[in-house]
Structures are given as structure tokens and as C-alpha cells.
Inverse folding.
């Protein structure tokens, strides 16, 4: 074998190795499992490492500096395990911390805000002036990240953003059918209903769990945008563009939470498994409690 | 001045110095302000340092090990500032972490579980077999700390414990009058109503904010026990027994959140101030955002 073919083989091997790496996903807790579900279903040949920062959940009521710090620690934890791509499944972390994570981590990073915003504009593009609603946590709404991302692709869009703080607890309690949930949704979404939006972005990973209630409240004419699904589409595109997709077909059938995917939580694995079952339909096969704190001590 | 009178003066000075120290209070967030309010009203000559661990709130869904770690870090932060007594205002931390805090901190420590439990038994003591309800976070209920504390003073008491997870968000949203809150309370408290309890312990610092709804749901015959108020009584007793009460009368009138009391939060001071206003009626005069993490690094 000559030098050149040796080198091309080495490059091929390396490429293959990278293509075989998992995709990292982190979220403040269990909500990002809706993003994992979308990714897993869209990309059956990929395997995933999921980190839920259950020791410090929720992020949606916390400050920029704190969300940045937590997001960096989570990203470092995943990067140190070897990943080919990082998905920031948490809307709050996507809204607040992407630039800081990019400073620290040297892999491609996809947040959920951009894909959700672009999908909302895409599906409303036949309207003269699209009206887009966004519901999210307090921190995400305050950051105006969705508004900025939407305006980047549609300058004239009308955007109505509103926080729905109780939705997170309601989703975690699995109150998806209770009359109280409908009543609370009616209150929170009144502004959205009055504005007669064309599309509504579910800007928090917990909200797809309450999809039924939300759809019924805003009416069938409003298209709900699940940022997780939009993110899975963009990840698929990026993997192909960058030649990072795993070329090996997984033998047999994949299912959510199977042992090709590895789940880490920073606390209370038992509670995570219980809530994960509500979100995925099954308990993850590989679930481990770890610590992500104190990476900054590595510097000392 | 002879040796002996010199020494007694030195002792007197030292005692005076200790009596002048503030009382430390920590909570997972803003909820402990209901305990601060009770302490402040009961002990107008004392001043307080309050720490709300808003960067890591809530504790009620987290594990024993994590709650212990957070509680120790908070206690160390307060102890390093000089306090004569530590009040663990958080029910979850009181239920799970008192023994570990006692290992690390060398001042008297009062949690909210014991005082709440004793008060419940005291006010039901004329009943043959007192029936006591306890509502709290998931972690506190799972710990059975209230049941154990009640049994210590009344072996035969019947105890019904139940978690009310949505109450925390409802209190922070200030939904104290909304029909949804009444409806959710009816669901959560059905077991308590069916059991015909004599007293109901509000075993989470957020719950006194929903006192009106809770009282109406369980009926006027049930005495609600605010653990914060019971704790203030026990702290008063302890200060007198140990000669730790501040003998100096504060000049002028005290008010909640005045500049004799110092408030620290680990994150999002603005949001804390906003919610504090709902809990206290005023914003605290002295409010500062700090970090409590990494005290263990001091060991290195």
C-alpha cells in the first residue's frame, strides 16, 4: 500500500470513527425527552447520550449567568464523553447560553430556538403578514430569543410571546386531561387566541406533553410547532451536509430508551425514570446518576 | 479593677457580642420568607440574615444526597458570616438534612418539622386519638419526617400525609383566589377531608400563601398549623433559655424587610424581590446575589 492510499485509509477510518460517535443532548431535566424522542424517531441509525440536569432543574426561572454556567458544565460533561454533535434541548439554555457554549465546546451545536422559529415562518409563509405565537418559560420570553430568530427569517412577522409558568408542573404531574389544565390553559392562552395567530411555537420542552389541551384551547386552525421535531429535521440535514451521519444500519428494531442510548441525570434517577415513562412510554434501559459540577476545578 | 472583675467584664462583653449576632435563616428559595415573617414579628429585637438558594430551587423533588449537600453549603455560608442560631426554614431540608448540618455547623439549629409537629399535637391533645394531616413536597412526604416527629410526642396519633406538588407554582404565581386553585386544592386535599382530621400541618413554606384556599377546602373545623409560626415560638424559647436573646431594644419601629435584616440569594435577585413583595408586602431593603458553591474547595 502506498503512502497516499495509506493516508486515505487513515482518513476513512477516522471519518468512520467520528460518524460512529453518539449525538449529545442536554436539558435542564426530563422535558428534553420530547426532543430526544423526535431525534430518535427521525434518526434511527444514530445513538444518543442524554443528560438531564435534574439537580438544578428548572432553568426557566433562573438568571442569564446561572443558566450559562449550568449549560457550560453540562456541555463539557457530554463533550468529554465524545460526541459528534451537541443538541441543546432546553429552550431556556438555547435562548440564553448558545454563544457561551460555543466558546467552550468544539463540536457543532444545535439549539431548539432557531429550528422552531424557522419552521413557524415556513409553515406560515403563504400568509401576507404571518402571525406567530410563542409560549415559553419566563426566562425564554424575557430573552426575546424566539422573536429575534423569527425576525431573522421574516422581518414583517407579528409575534406574540407569553409565559405559561404552571404548564411545567402540570406536565410533570401528567395532568394532560384534567379540567383544571384546560382552565389554566384558557387563561394563559387568551392573548394568543385574541391575536388570531396562524402558528403557535411550543417554546418549552414540557409543552408538547400538553399538546392536546393547547390545541383545543387555541383551535384547530392554529398550527402547533414542536421545536423538538423541527430540531430533529435540522440535525438530520446537518449530519448529511457535514457527512457525519452514521452509515451503519442498526440491526433489528430501535425503540425509545433502548440500550443504544445512554441517559445521565445529575440527581434523583428514580423520579426521572418515573416521569420518563410518562414522556416516552418506557423507562430508559441505561440510566445513571452522575455529577457535572466542578469542571472549573479542572483548571486548578 | 482586679483580675476577677476584669474577667467577668470580658465574659459580659463576649456574651453581649454573641447576643448581638443575627439569626441565620436559609430556604431553598422565596418560600422561607413566611418563616422569616413569623420570626421577625415574634422577635422584634433580633436581626436576621436570610439566604434563599434560588439558583437550585426547588428542593422538594430532589434526592437526599443532593438536598444534604445544598443544605450544608447554605449553612456554611451563613455560619461564616457569624450567627448565633440557624433556622432551617425549608421543610425539605429540615426533613432530610438536619443531622448532616449538625455535623458541620457548631451553632444551635432549629428546623421547622419538629416545631410544626409538636404544635399539631399540642392543639389536638384534648382529642382521644388526634387525627393530624400533613401536606408537603414529595421529598418531605417520602421522608416521613413529620410522621416520625409527631409520633415522638403522641404515639397514638393518626397521621395522613399527602404531597401537593402544584401548590408551590400556584403560590409563586400568586394564584391565591383563582377558581383553578380551589379546584386543584379540592383534588389534593380529598384524602385529608375524608379522614376528618383535627389539624392540618402546612408542611411547605409556600403553603401559608394559599392558607385561604386550604382552610376553605378542609373546612373551618380543621386547625391549620403554620410550621413557621410554631418555629418562631420555639426559637424565642430557646433564645431565652440559652440567654442568647438580644437585650437591646431596637429604636423606632421595625418593619418586614427593613435594613436591619440582610437578604442573600444565589440567583435572580430581581425575581426574588418581585415574589418577596407578594410574600412580605414589601421588597427587602438589603438584597444581594451571591454564590454559596464550592465551599468544599476550601478544604484543598
Amino acid at each position: 500500500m502506498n503512502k497516499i492510499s495509506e493516508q486515505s485509509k487513515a482518513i476513512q477510518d477516522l471519518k468512520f470513527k467520528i460518524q460512529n460517535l453518539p449525538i449529545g443532548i442536554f436539558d435542564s431535566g426530563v422535558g428534553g425527552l420530547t426532543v430526544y424522542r423526535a431525534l430518535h424517531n427521525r434518526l434511527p441509525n444514530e445513538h444518543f447520550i442524554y443528560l438531564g440536569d435534574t439537580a438544578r432543574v428548572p432553568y426557566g426561572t433562573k438568571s442569564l449567568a446561572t443558566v450559562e454556567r449550568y449549560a457550560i458544565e453540562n456541555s463539557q460533561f457530554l463533550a468529554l464523553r465524545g460526541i459528534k454533535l451537541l443538541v441543546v434541548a432546553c429552550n431556556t439554555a438555547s435562548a440564553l447560553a448558545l454563544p457561551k457554549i460555543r466558546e467552550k465546546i468544539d463540536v457543532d451545536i444545535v439549539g431548539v430556538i432557531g429550528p422552531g422559529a424557522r419552521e413557524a415562518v415556513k409553515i406560515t409563509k403563504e400568509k401576507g403578514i404571518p402571525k406567530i405565537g410563542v409560549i415559553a418559560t419566563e426566562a425564554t420570553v424575557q430573552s426575546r430569543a424566539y422573536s429575534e430568530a423569527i425576525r431573522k427569517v421574516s422581518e414583517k412577522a407579528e409575534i406574540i410571546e407569553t409565559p405559561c409558568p404552571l404548564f411545567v408542573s402540570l406536565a410533570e404531574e401528567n395532568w394532560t386531561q384534567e379540567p383544571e389544565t384546560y382552565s389554566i390553559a384558557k387563561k394563559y392562552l387568551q392573548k394568543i387566541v385574541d391575536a388570531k395567530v396562524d402558528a403557535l411555537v411550543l417554546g418549552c420542552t414540557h409543552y408538547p406533553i400538553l399538546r392536546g389541551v393547547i390545541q383545543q384551547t387555541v383551535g384547530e386552525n392554529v398550527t402547533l410547532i414542536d421545536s423538538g421535531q423541527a430540531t430533529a429535521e435540522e440535525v438530520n440535514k446537518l449530519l448529511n451536509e457535514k457527512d457525519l451521519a452514521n452509515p451503519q444500519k442498526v440491526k433489528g428494531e430501535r425503540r425509545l430508551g433502548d440500550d443504544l442510548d445512554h441517559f445521565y441525570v445529575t440527581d434523583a434517577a428514580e423520579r426521572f425514570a418515573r416521569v420518563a415513562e410518562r414522556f416516552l412510554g418506557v423507562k430508559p434501559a441505561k440510566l445513571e446518576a452522575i455529577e457535572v459540577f466542578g469542571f472549573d476545578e479542572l483548571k486548578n
